[in-house]
Amino acid sequence: MMHNSETQSSGGAxxxxxxxxxxxxxxxxxxxxxxxYIVRQRGFRPQDVMDxxxxxxxxxxxLTGSAMNDSFTTARRIDERLAQYAxxxxxxxxxxxxxxxxxxxxxRESVRGEVPFAAHDAETAPTIQRPLICLFGADASPExxxxxxxxxxxxxxxxxxxxxxLPHLGDSTPPDVMIAELAAxxxxxxxxxxxxxxxxxxxxxxxxxxxVSGGAAGQxxxxxxxxxxxxxxxxxxxxxxxxxxxxxxxxxxFLIPYRVLMLGADxxxxxxxxxxxxxxxxxxxxSVAPLxxxxxxxxxxxxxxxxxxxxxxxxxxxxxxxxxxxxMSLDIPLLALDVPGAPDVSPGNGMLDSLPPASTDADIVCRxxxxxxxxxxxxxxxxxxxxxxxxxxxxxxxxxxxxxxCHLDGLDPAQGAAVVLQWAFDDPGALLARLGPIxxxxxxxxxxxxxxxxxxxxxxxxSHGEAGLIAIAQRKDVKEIVELAQRLxxxxxxxxxxxxxxxxxxxSIGVGQVMWERPLKALDRAIALCSEARDSGxxxxxLDPELLTPDLQVEERNxxxxxxxxxxxxxxxxxxxxxxxxxxxxxxxxxxxxxLRIREPNGKILLPGQFVEMAERxxxxxxxxxxxxxxxxxxxxARTVSHPQSRLFVKMSRGSLGDSSFLPWLxxxxxxxxxxxxxxxxxxxxxxxLGRMDQLSAFGDALRDLEIRIALEHFGASTDADTRRMLAExxxxxxxxxxxxxxxxxxxxxPSLRLNGLLGQAKEVGAYTMASYVEDADxxxxxxxxxxDLVQGNFIRQPEEELRYELEFPGLDDTG
Length: 816
Fold this sequence. Notes:
By secondary structure, the protein is α/β, with parallel strands linked by helices. Helices cover about 45% and strands about 15% of the residues. The strands form 4 sheets. It has an 8-stranded mixed barrel with strand order 16-17-19-20-21-22-23-24, surrounded by 4 helices. Strands 2-1-3-4-5 form a 5-stranded parallel sheet, with helices on both faces. It has a 5-stranded parallel sheet with strand order 7-6-8-9-10, sandwiched between helices.
């Protein structure tokens, strides 16, 4: 949204709105964004649309007659579009869905700009209000790449394409940082920008974003600083470098005033300087007992200590030495004000600063602020080391999707194939444990920069989560795409990392082809393919089959059908079995998951990721399901007498869930091959269930009538409300927790709140809890402590063709 003087001045007129409505408005709009994303994930069900429309109608009603014109207009447009679909089962086309999503995000930006900050609840203001960024340049807009990169990290952006649109400090929500984009470094333009900043936003940090040749970066940065700006970032810039510069100039907790402890001989000596610092917005505590400075620092945790005048019986240097041995001080800066003979640097404490008697009030405030800001940053880093790091700003899926869509909209399909790539560390938890949070984040940043440098200038590169990045590239043919992916992998995976024992890291890449009619599917495919690459041993590139078979005409379809059919006929399609262990107690049940493999004529083994996706596209997935289930029933039938406590877990595809003939077929197979009740467990993916909950509730009842058990896979990837509803509707016997909630658990001090909540939900309905991908003893121990019931993974036993159950758990065999 373009913030100009008209928009900024509307904040005062909004006082006519109901105060309670105004306070709740930002949170309501955030809730609308979250609900809209869930509506899309669920398949745009009419009831969900009605629920969301209840929010939009309330917004339209509350904003009617206010001066918040942009917010009112946007809310009304959203409501009108939803009204078209609220009473029908017709689903919007992808373009309409993206339009509504864009309007939801625009409403969020409008409200941020038009609601005065004073209307926010005091206790929530610091978390709702993030530094506001003024983006200035001829091409500045809310849809520009820089604005969208800031948006995914939670920053509101005022986009100004000319001088007239620049905000001022007197506006209701003045910006905290100004970023100016330049097409090329130009001294005259740089001087003009500094002059503009001083005229409109004096004191606001100015960041220059411009292309700079690699060898001249240092000299250009110095030139920018000497011209009066505060930082130079090289274009194209990574989102982490962009956000890092903002955090360096404006603290995330910038709304909290700096805390100062002032020491003096008596109240008279400290009253005037303390009052001056308070007027400048600092929080000042006073002590006239210098010998108690250690206790006062421990109690009030100041970020700077100011010594006002001479102290009886103790020098400024000795105050520093009193604090030095105490870890809680974290090198608190000491500033000596009007202290005769105070040294500039103390041999006992390098943080003693002397302010001469001639210092002006402005000089004193500036120096105290600078020292307190330095201390706050150091303390934040120290806290991060102790608490395993402060998490970076979370990226909301809708903002991230908007960034991806806006970039793809700028590409011409006629210019070649486009792909989305995900690059990610294979074992981020172990890397974090070995490097520590600060070095880990720096390493992550380093690899984002490496990928950015290896890509073409027009490609998009953006961090994604704690361990990877997303890139979008377009090349003239598939060969160039494949070469790009391989080159990226060669330049990053195995690259040296300073401070890391062994020196290198392993990483994998997933590459999803963009289908222009459904562009966001490529994002999901890239993430899934990267995960598959890591699960298959890691340190590799996994390409989308679409890249290798882009059109799948009749001949290609027949080829893949013949390939899968011949694998079955020639008995080259075969099951393997991975044991599932009970770590919550002892029982006699032998549990295995049945996994699928194809042995090619040359002896090479194909994993499911290499043919199951193709089978799904050709609608052959349901036939594979029936082959696996038939074999599982045959095995269970043969073991009914010798192993009555056997359980086989079999994955079900989306195709079988929508196949009306599946349940009758299953009933006939059970009649022909009777098995022990409950010995067959069908695993349903949470995502497949979520999109068709109403129909699958009856499906679950039918399975129970056949004495088939139900397991929910990837459980916990959705919202808390969704997981509770799935448990109530499906009543599963087992829930397999989503991998991202359990992998790396032993690198955290405690299990996550989300994991604990899911385990509690499952136990409430009597379901066994499961975790997969157990790779080491530490992870196994933590899962046991978290009270997970069942586990599986290569650490316990790898999948084997032979069905056997031989497990040992040193130290866990007496858990009862």
